[in-house]
Amino acid sequence: MSILVTGGAGFIGANFVLDWLVHHDEPIINLDKLTYAGNLENLASLEGDARHIFVRGDISDTILVDQLLHEHRPRAIINFAAESHVDRSIHGPGDFIQTNIVGTFHLLESVRAYWDGLESEFQQLFRFLHVSTDEVYGSLGKDDPAFSEINRYEPNSPYSASKAASDHLVRAYHHTYGLPVLTTNCSNNYGPYHFPEKLIPLIIHNALAGKSLPIYGDGQQIRDWLYVKDHCSAIRRVLEAGRVGETYNVGGTNEKTNLDVVHTLCDILDELAPPATCNLSLTSYRSLITFVKDRPGHDRRYAMDTSKLERELGWRPRETFEAGIRKTVVWYLANQNWVTNVTSGAYRDWVSRHYGA
Ligand code: NAD
Ligand code: DAU
Question: Which of the ligands is closest to the CA of residue 302?
């Protein structure tokens, strides 16, 4: 038995692969295109571990995906592969359409053919788990109830629209072809290996470098933050016991304004790495906060109602925001080499050395 993950060199995918191999001995085949967001350094601790088989490739490459399915005969596929950054989708939506929609379609076609050819016992065991986002539901007003699985889809950015389209395709492959699918829609993750283009790692990185801390608009937008390991445990639980064809909301019930998050980060950094230790003549990192032009179409608030996942599958997040955010800062302080390799682009040297230009 084995499972196949796509996008397992990115932030959540890499955390999932590492987490999986702590909990299972079942091999994991990791198919990742290694875009700018894919980083094999995230998986360095698995070097020489025969349970992890890394394959560089695109989910749209039908010949490669068919070959992997035929060769490894996985009992499940978990689809993390995506273009994931909202700001990038605003500057250039093309890659988002290509991977998140067309890529998911090609992957589903390969998986459908593979699943069709399985013996019936194995067919019943098989699962395709699609990892999606709360952003497909759109934006909430201040007093609106949190998103539940029956909220209508109202995506507002090219990123969320592309994820919404992929969710619809996954749903259709279940209803039309009977493919045993599961979908998880999760809120904002944070934790180790988070690429420093996203709010939390960007703020930590900029603060330590004495650069300004950009807050879009008034900073009063609200996100529901979930420690990445809790997302991994939710995915494992849904894979294990989720009802086929269902979607499950995942979230931390940690609603915070962006400004609150940035203040918290500055306060923890002031304590653990005071500006003077970074040769900065500031009394607090808070003085680096700068309000900048808002993101176009910026969603105001996300919040997740996770009662279905709690009720049906007994999942609950383990990490409080206070503990998780402190752990995250500690991880970034202890892994400045990782950050430097990412921000300098050095992590890509390995890719060109290994795969050629
Ligand atoms: P990420 O950008 O860090 O990683 C994406 C990974 O996918 C990278 O390793 C990249 O190389 C790979 N990839 C991209 N295109 C590919 C392709 N065509 N074929 C194969 N691999 C490809 O993203 P992330 O933050 O780890 O998010 C993972 C998934 O979780 C995404 O589907 C995202 O929509 C979803 N999600 C993310 C969050 C979050 O807060 N980050 C929250 C909810 C859901
Ligand atoms: O909600 C889940 C989503 O969370 C995932 O589906 C996405 O893949 C993931 O990138 C994330 O999207 P966000 O747009 O919420 O994350 P980001 O870290 O880019 O921004 C978080 C909030 O902080 C958002 O309101 C925009 C704001 N922000 C972001 C950056 C990068 C700033 O104010 N300044 C910044 O420089």
Answer: 2
Our mutation pick for probing the ligand 2 site, out of 199, 231, 259, 265, counting the most ligand atoms within 8 A of Cβ, is: 199
Consecutive 10-residue averages of pLDDT for the chain (357 residues): 97 98 96 96 96 98 98 98 97 97 98 98 98 98 98 98 99 98 98 97 96 97 98 98 98 97 98 97 97 97 98 98 98 96 81 61
- Domain of residue 52 covers 3-190+227-251+300-318
Q: Is residue 68 assigned to a domain?
A: yes
* Ligand 1 binding pocket includes 9 (Cβ within 6 Å): yes
CB 297 within 8 Å of CB 225: no
CB-ligand 2 contact for 185 (6 Å cutoff): no
Tokens matching residue 49: 């571990």
φ, ψ for residue 190, nearest 5 deg: -150, 160
Q: Is 198 in the pocket of ligand 2 (CB under 6 A)?
A: yes
Domain total in the chain: 1
Q: Is 134 a catalytic residue?
A: yes
Q: What angle do CA 168, 173, 176 make, to 5 degrees?
A: 110
This prediction has a pTM of: 0.97
